[in-house]
Design brief:
This is Guanidinium exporter. The chain crosses the membrane at residues 33-50, 57-78, 84-103. This protein is mainly α. It has one domain (2-103). The chain has 4 helices and no strands. Helix 1 (2-21) runs antiparallel to helix 2 (29-49) and helix 1 packs across helix 3. It is flat. The chain starts with a helix and ends with a helix.
Length: 107
Amino acid sequence: MTWLILLAAGLLECVWAVALKYTEGFTRWLPSTITIVAMTGSVVLLGIAMRNLPLGTAYAIWTGIGTVGTAVAGMVLLGEPAGAVRLGCIALIVAGIVGLKMVTPAG
């Protein structure tokens, strides 16, 4: 269950990062509200996951999920470049996330 909570926290990180792009400096109420709610939820869920996971593992996986998800969202939603080097770097982050998951006892 701890890993699912951490996954949800990472996904909420993607949500707030994408929503932040649309806030126009927090002048648009809907994306601003989504950003703030998703930020809060993400950090709360991260804190819950840290009850059972080591700090370094939980934080690295949380930021990794957020990084990969946000990069993919940028490519899919905003037409950001998806070159081979960029995709290779994203794959390295995914490999790091999987590696940390494999060497960390279940929470």
